[in-house]
Write a structure and sequence with these properties.
Helix content of chain A: under 10%
Strand content of chain B: over 45%
Low-confidence stretches of chain A: none
Mean pLDDT of chain A: 97
Low-confidence stretches of chain B: none
Order of helices and strands of chain A: EEEEEEEEEEE
Shape of chain B: globular
Distance between the termini of chain A: 40 Å
Oligomer: heterodimer
Number of strands of chain B: 11
Structural class of chain A: mainly beta
Largest sheet of chain A: 7 strands, mixed
Shape of chain A: globular
């Protein structure tokens, strides 16, 4: 079955960097767009970034543009999120999610990983 | 940017009750509207895509309807396992994907 497993979260000081990974299995990773979505403690869901199935297109939420970079390695079935210049307001559980349809990046998120917690604090 | 609103923000209902949640977009999004369920401490789960299509394996007591700016999510007979927060999400205004603020459903 489809499985997404995030890793790389932790506690980091403001201004520092962190890289999240999402290991995918159970589907043809190279055929699907992939997303990062985050959820601050006790808050709602916020879409962060998307990358097309071949990595040629990447889009970001305004709140992270210029600081975060989404990438993928289709040979390793792995999605990444490089987070630089971290701020307290970036504290959240970060989920990776697969696009619902192959080849088409813009639709729904299905399924989601279990999430990894990033805490930005001095 | 498209804004999404949901109402109510929370509700309490009895087992077996019909529960309805509404989601409104700030502009026409056709049927590009999805619904997710998030149980406490868990990742969200897709229930409905493109406004009215039930995801495979999701119980038929869940349904969605609407188009344009106004959408409805319904649980026809609330079950104890349906305690969760429900989110709508639009994907018409690409490349941004916007979620509604969520509706928390409890058992009375």
């Amino acid at each position: 079955q489809v499985q997404l497993v995030e890793s790389g979260g932790g506690v980091v000081q403001p201004g520092r960097s962190l890289r999240l990974s999402c290991a995918a299995s159970g589907f043809t990773f190279s055929s699907y767009g992939m997303h990062w979505v985050r959820q601050a403690p006790g808050k709602g869901l916020e879409w962060v970034a998307v990358i097309s199935y071949d990595g040629s297109n990447k889009y970001y939420a305004d709140s992270v543009k210029g600081r975060f970079t989404i990438s993928r390695d289709n040979s390793k079935n792995t999605l990444y999120l490089q987070m630089n210049s971290l701020r307290a307001e970036d504290t959240a559980v970060y989920y990776c999610a697969k696009s619902g349809l192959p080849w088409a990046t813009y639709n729904w998120f299905d399924p989601w990983g279990q999430g990894t917690l990033v805490t930005v604090s001095s | 940017d498209i804004q999404m609103t949901q109402s109510p923000s929370s509700l309490s209902a009895s087992v077996g009750d019909r529960v309805t949640i509404t989601c409104q977009a700030s502009q026409d999004i056709s049927n590009y509207l999805n619904w997710y369920q998030q149980k406490p401490g868990k990742a969200p789960k897709l229930l409905i895509y493109d406004a009215s299509n039930l995801e495979t394996g999701v119980p038929s007591r869940f349904s969605g309807s609407g188009s344009g700016t106004d959408f409805t999510f319904t649980i026809s007979s609330l079950q104890p396992e349906d305690i969760a927060t429900y989110y709508c999400q639009q994907y018409d205004n690409l490349p941004s994907f916007t979620f509604g603020p969520g509706t928390k459903v409890d058992i009375k």
